[in-house]
Specification:
Elements lengths: L7 E4 L1 E4 L6 H4 L19 H4 L22 E4 L11 H9 L3 E4 L4 H9 L3 E4 L2 H11 L7 E4 L4 E3 L5 E3 L4 H9 L3 H6 L2 H10 L1 H4 L11
Parallel strand pairs: 2-3, 3-4, 4-5
Antiparallel strand pairs: 1-6, 6-7, 7-8
Length: 211
């Protein structure tokens, strides 16, 4: 699935420093309808964003004015735990987030995010807390994330390096998922098969490849 490349983000930040936010809190089961990625943003954190009458909770992080244009979510540790539902990533992306910052992500959520063009940016908890402290007096301040350089710049001008798997980084920069990347290698795959015919001869299936 092709998507918009993720190269550089400069944005206000929505701060939701709650630990252990699970996928059911990210997108409640009531909003799961088939496998469509479209429209799931309306259900993002719905049990926290709205009161029982469906009215926005003004104090909730995503309902504050400074979060209206936010493409970055600053979350608590162990973000995305719980079930493996990919809808959690789809809801975040549909709402407009391109980067989620946390000190720790659940493994399956992290994998789902990377495959869907959402950057799970992991920093030490001390740095996440320091960034939250910087944003507290200036909640509309901008944070920049440079995926090419693997650098985050805070409102105070501090530059933080983050780790990103080279293959994941390439897919994000090119706007591809792993399947897109594989399909783009068709010519190289065919050339390899031509150069090594014995490995792909139907008569050799099940047998050890010969040199």
């Amino acid at each position: 699935m092709t998507r918009r490349p993720l190269t550089f983000v400069e944005s206000p930040v929505a701060t939701l420093r709650v630990p252990d936010i699970d996928t059911d809190q990210i997108i409640p089961a009531a909003y799961l309808k088939g496998t469509s990625r479209e429209g799931l943003g309306v259900g993002l954190f719905a049990q926290w964003r709205f009161d029982p009458a469906g009215r926005p909770q003004p104090d909730f992080a995503l309902n504050r004015p400074e979060a209206e244009a936010a493409e970055i979510l600053l979350a608590g540790p162990n973000f995305g735990c719980g079930s493996s539902r990919e809808h959690a990533v789809w809801a975040l992306a549909d709402f407009g987030f391109r980067v989620v910052i946390s000190s720790r992500f659940a493994d399956i959520f992290q994998s789902n995010a990377q495959k869907n063009g959402l950057l799970p940016l992991e920093l030490p908890e001390t740095e996440v807390a320091a960034l939250a402290a910087e944003l507290e007096p200036e909640p509309a301040a901008l944070v920049t994330v440079d995926i090419q350089a693997c650098r985050l710049r805070t409102p105070a001008g501090r530059e933080l390096a983050f780790n990103l798997d080279p293959f994941v980084r390439r897919c994000l920069l090119e706007g591809r998922d792993p399947l897109d990347f594989l399909l783009a290698q068709e010519e190289a795959i065919q050339a390899f098969e031509v150069a090594h015919p014995a490995r792909f001869d139907s008569r050799e299936l099940g047998e050890e490849a010969r040199p």
